[in-house]
Write a structure and sequence with these properties.
Blueprint: H1 8-17, E1 20-27, H2 33-43, E2 50-57, H3 68-82, E3 88-98, H4 101-114, E4 118-122, H5 130-135, E5 138-141, H6 149-167
Parallel strand pairs: 1-2, 1-4, 3-4, 3-5
Helix pairs in contact: 2-6, 4-6
Length: about 170
Amino acid sequence: MAHCVFTLSSIRHKILLAIMQIHLITIGQKMPAWVKQGYDEYAKRMPKECELILKEIPAGKRGKNSDVKRITKEEGEKMLAALPKNCHVVTLDVPGQTWSTERLAETMQEWLDSGQNIALLVGGPEGLADSVKQIARQSWSLSKLTYPHPLVRIIVAEQIYRAWSIINHHPYHR
C-alpha cells in the first residue's frame, strides 16, 4: 500500500493552484482559423486549476487620418475594464524583460504562490496605452523581434503550457 505524504507547503500549493486563472487580454478579434486552432491547442492542455482564458478586445478602426493616440488610449481603457479584480498585471511589451523558458516557469511558480489571478496584456499595432503600462507589475518581452499580433497568442499559450509542464515535471518540456 502506497503512503502519501503532504507537507504544509504542498497542500498550500495545491490550494493556490485550484484558484489561479491566467487571462490573456489582447487587442484584435476575428482571427484566422489557424490562430484559433494554435491557441486552443495549448489552452485546452492547461488543467482547470490553472486555466488560460482568452479575452479579445476589438481593435479601434484605423485609417489614413486616424488619431492613433486616441485609438490606443481607448483600447487601453477597454483592456483595463476587462481585467479581473485584484489580478497581477503583466504587459507583453518589447522593452519588457526577456525570460528564458526556465525563468518563465520560475515566474509562473511565483504567480501560483501569490494566490492571485494573472492578466497578460497584449496591445494593438501601436502597442499598449500608457494607462495599461502604468498599472503593470511586470513587463515581459517575448523578443526584440516584432511578431504579428495573432502569432503572439499562440507563442504565449505554448510558453505558458511549457512553463506549467516544467513546474509539474510533465514530459512535454523535454
